[in-house]
Amino acid sequence: YILDFEQVNKASLPAVGGKNASLGELITAGIRVPPGFAITTDSYLSFLTQAGIKDKVFKLLSDVNPDDVASLDGASAEIQKLFSEALMLGDIEEAIREGYRCLCDKCGVKGIPVAVRSSATAEDLPTASFAGQQDTYLWIEGFDQVIRNVQKCWASLFTSRAISYRIKNNFPHEKVLISVGVQKMVNSRTAGVMFTLDPVNGDPSKIVIEGNWGLGETVVAGKVNPDKFVVDKIIFEISEKTVSHKHVECIFDPQKGEVVEAEV
């Protein structure tokens, strides 16, 4: 039901999804990656069956009209409710508990804060882009909260947007599976995204880096105009630099016990 990031690679994509498989590849390449583990697609499928919600979910999906917002929102809300009220049973829960306990031991921190990250099997396909449609939850502490947010990640496979996109791209709902990554949080001063080619024009000779203060959520969600650096791979020089006014950052608030957006 779970696999350590060190055990996965791109061949593991059907079991752990694109995001987790890529983390495994980075570790294999010798790049420093915060430790964690993947909750496999088998766990998701077993949960659907053991909780008795599989038939109900796909019945709701079969009745959806993708051109009717109310129909999409209604089906999505019903499915979210099914996931939130379902109980995770013994063997799956125990595997995740053991994975989280081992991660706490590895890091030497009891109840270590983690990111609970969706990793769908159809995130990066040549014909369609599903990336970013599922949810991620930051700074989750304690086993019970990990379990609750794992179920929320599974449920995010059925947001109105995700349901509509799959229908309009003729992609069967049952063909998209979801894994979840549980990964040690980094209390970052700055964070962002690096593209190993130019995402605008596809130029493979460029690396594009975008960043902001705090956690990377503001950059990923497009909530801030980030600093931007374009690096030329050929001559190993920065060919473009843009420093923006960054008005907001995403940080952990110890008093509230959650991640918040704060003015810089």
By DSSP, the count of extended strands is 11
Strand proportion, as a percent range, falls in: 15-25%
Q: Specify the biggest β-sheet.
A: 5 strands, antiparallel
CATH superfamily of the largest domain: ATP-grasp fold, A domain
Number of helices: 8
As for the number of domains, it is 2
The shape, in one word, is: globular
Stretches where pLDDT is under 50 for at least 5 consecutive residues are none
Radius of gyration: 19 Å
Helix content: 25-40%
Summarize the structure.
This protein is of the alpha+beta class and 264 residues long. It has helices at 13-28, 41-50, 54-62, 69-85, 90-107, 143-155, 160-168, 217-220; strands at residues 2-4, 36-39, 114-120, 136-140, 178-184, 190-195, 206-213, 227-232, 237-242, 248-253, 258-263.
